[in-house]
Amino acid sequence: MTGLGRIGRLMLIGAPFLWLALFFLLPLLIVVKISLAESKIGIPPYTPLLANGSKGLEWRGTLANYVLIATDSLYLRAYLGSIGNAALATALCLVIGYPIAYAIARSPSVRRQLLLFLVIMPFWTSFLIRVYAWIAILEPQGLLNQLLIALGLVTAPLPLLNNQFSVQLGLVYSYLPFMILPLYGSLSRLDQSLVEAAADLGARPLQAFLGVILPLTLPGIAAGSLLVLIPAAGEFVIPDLLGGPGTLMIGKVLWDEFFNNRDWPVAAAVAVVLVAALALPLLAAQRFLEREHAA
Amino acid sequence: MLGFGFLYAPIVLLVLYSFNASRLVTVWGGFSPRWYGALFRNEAFGAAALTSLEVAAAAATLSLVLGTFAGFSMARFGRFPGRLVFGFLLLAPLIVPEVILGLSLLLLFVACQSWFGWPSRGMLTIMVAHATFGGCFVSVLVRAQLAGFDRALEEAALDLGARPWTVLARITLPGIRPALLAGWLLAFTLSLDDLVIASFVTGPAATTLPMAVFSSVRLGVSPEVNALATMFLAAVFVLVALAGWLMARQERRRQTTPRIRPI
Questions:
Q1: How far is B46 from chain A (nearest CA, A)?
Q2: Chain B neighbours among A 220-279 (CB < 8 Å)?
Q3: Do A141 and B196 touch (CB under 8 A)?
Q4: Pick from B22, B121, B101, B100: which is nearest to A23 by CA?
Q5: B197 with B105: CB under 8 angstroms?
Q6: Tell me: the pLDDT tens digits for A153-177?
Q7: How large is the ipTM?
Q8: Residue B29 — pLDDT band, cuts 50, 70, 90?
Q9: Per the structure, how many domains does chain B have?
Q10: Which residue of A has its CA nearest to B188?
Q11: Which residue is closest to B215 within chain A, CA to CA?
């Protein structure tokens, strides 16, 4: 609507814009600032960047926190571990989610609504509780091990919890709906006559899929992958509850630096590096999601 | 349909085992509601639940206002200066890892406190943090529904001499009521569910329900948490079913009665 007037428009855009600038952008700048400070005991637990010295105000910033991150292999392994885990989870979500999204898109209308509802429903239930539910299943005396032993498939309980397997399972389980929804969006807009045309021209199902369906749903694949990859890379709850001593993920490292070591500047530097690593995927995500909005 | 089994099996098992008489979570000791009794006598959970509900209601309401403004701007104002940045600011909080949102907001609040002596960390700071990402979720829903909204209705009202703000209040907002309702509920449940951001920005005074649950879950599986989770799921299910029923009823009414109402 155009008749709302300049002031009306300014208010409608300005209020949320200002809010986000104040509570999203500004905080990120403060993180950068504190990542250049040194940790100290006190309130707040970091040194000021500018302090009165012999020649007036002096710059006291330091890159020591970044040097620590670059030289201590713990951080590098945690970043790589996070990206590796998130990438594998993304690939698995894609492989599992694509057939589901396809089946939903091809269902009759009433059943499609129901299935979509079932995919969205987990968004409404507690994330923490859904992750926690897996502990009872994967424990050494847990339900899955009991089942496997009862079936005679294994004789001793398998180590299913607190390792790489359980973290991966938790990631895929938690982020699967984020993959299915954009895929469904792409697939439901797919012009079915194109697939039929390919079949009429002699394409086998696999050829039609690779040559027609897959390329046309690439925006959905990209959007879904980024919606899984980015938050999964910084995940804390899953590696903390389902992970073990061998799982290194940067979200948990950041949490521990902050809450256990109380080293705010190092935590801030870890966050800055993570944001920098995720900046490009984030921009790409915006591009693909805007395209979805436009379609 | 194996996929849906994968999505729902853990939840179903959790509900089932909340009625387990045995303290051992993986041994079935017969049906019993004892953990629900234990849950209600647990005062730490009770106080935390009250805190969480208060924060969530306030955060959802603020989210609704901010998100509706933002969603309306993105859907209706076409190109305006800063639109790309605005779109990015609305999207980023939805996918940036929670640890980053939590840490950055905490550092903002700490800086504010040292500059202005305000705010002290607690329920207010959690509410502000939750309203920030809640508003972004609401804006997505509002924008999507506005995209499918019949603009001829608005134009007809304008042609008949209604002022733009009247049209907004009497035609547009009632028209997107399902998105507003869903948006408020989504912001509410997301706030109720958030562990990571709240843990960063809270002070010693405020413990939310997820924080209480997390500290007991870290020690292992607890039957009381199973009972709590089941009640949470039941509440969500009732709310979602109610919202679905209301929307279906509204849809039926819209189809059977003329759509024109006096302005």
A1: 17
A2: 226-227, 230-231, 233-237, 240-241, 251, 254-255, 258-259, 264, 267-268, 271, 274-275, 278
A3: no
A4: B101
A5: yes
A6: 888 888 888 889 999 999 999 999 9
A7: 0.88
A8: confident
A9: 2
A10: A124
A11: A241
